[in-house]
Amino acid sequence: MHFHLPKPMHGWRELLGEVAIIVIGVLIALGAQQVVEALNDRRMADQTRAAIKEEFNDNLTGLTLRAKAEPCILRRLGELRQIVTAWQKTGRFVAPLWVAQAPELDVELSRYDAAVSAGRLTGLPSAEQYQIGSIAHDFRFFGQIQQQERPVWGRLRALQAGPEALSATDRTMILTALQDAATLDYQARIAVRQALPFAKDAGYAPDFTQFNRTVKRAWTGGEFTPSICSPIDTPPDEANRTQVTPIPL
After folding, report:
1. 3-state secondary structure 72-100
2. Tally of domains in the chain
3. pLDDT (tens digit per residue) in 21-37
4. 205-223: pLDDT as tens digits
5. Residue 43: Cβ-neighbour burial (10 angstroms; 0-12, 13-18, 19+)
6. Which residues constitute the domain of residue 103?
């Protein structure tokens, strides 16, 4: 018994040619899809990179302003240390009129966190992912320091009540607060000193554009004037007037 394979209508050669055309067409379509996907991935990476860069540059502005305020913070800590030392030695001290506090500057990581949650950082080179993650860690650490500073300086402002209103227990509390404030400020200075050059090497730099647009809404003189830079004997009403919409300390 013999079996006969059906022959193509126009011959095997033409069939193979048609199959080759189909295969080539499929390969071209797959290649085009890969090109489109690569272009979309590159576009998404560029958008992610641009959003994070804008956010990081704004944060670096805050760190730069903190460095600018450091001489005032260190001076105030020294003045408070002298007051507490006199209190320990004599049981009395001249009540300061204006203790103030270390400035609290915005550190925002919402765009970075959104990119991480969406998995968009995976589209960036591993070295760039490491740089971005390290800088974000520095910002988060700096923000945590500022949160811890707020209640500490609040306790230090109890000195404005004067020795008659404070007890030995209060003195212990204020001594602890003073040490905590000094430690936190040291950590803030280290964080700023490390973060700024590392970010610069990664291609980031402070961008004062947004700050310059809003600075006049915060300080009456139209420039960064942290409350802690006012002399310690400044009447509170006068010190508060350095802000456009003061929230009295």
Report:
1. HHHHHHHHHHHHHHHHHHHCCCCCCCCCC
2. 1
3. 776 766 676 665 654 45
4. 999 998 898 888 888 888 8
5. exposed
6. 12-240
